[in-house]
Amino acid sequence: MSSVNPTTAGDQAVQSATPNTGAELDIASSNIGTPSVTSFSSIRDNVQDCIVNSINSVLDQSTEYSASDVTTWVDSITSNCLDNLRKLSEKFKYIVSVMVLQRSPAGFHLFTTCYWDQANDGSVTHRWDNKNLHCVVVVYGVAY
């Protein structure tokens, strides 16, 4: 039995990337859909790809910030991300949080904490930027 320890999403490195060419997520990985996947760390790179592809399916470098469009963007990103995460492994309950902010000189700080099984659970945080806005996506995977 593994020990349960508190951890924070703040401990995870926030990664930033430029959008790719919009290629679809390749779900042909050896970890995908197999019952042997029990640790979030074993699918972390695939989760990162899910996040990037979900953002790139909605936003691009020319997207202007529009408060009236944010709800639609967030809904599309979360839905797309959850659909692809379920294809990776159904051994986890997933939580997807998406924040879209207008780019400005004002600061923004985000901190979350979880009490979970560090051996099997995990999170990935990804920050995407263009000249007009910031998009931060956090995915938590809790094994069950």
UniProtKB/TrEMBL annotation:
InterPro entries: Tctex-1-like (IPR005334), Tctex-1-like_sf (IPR038586). It comes from the Eukaryota. One of its GO terms (molecular function) is dynein intermediate chain binding. Pfam families: Tctex-1 (PF03645). GO terms for cellular component: cytoplasm; cytoplasmic dynein complex. Transmembrane segments: none annotated. Gene3D superfamilies: Tctex-1. GO terms for biological process: microtubule-based movement. This is TCTEX-1 family protein. It comes from Cryptosporidium andersoni.
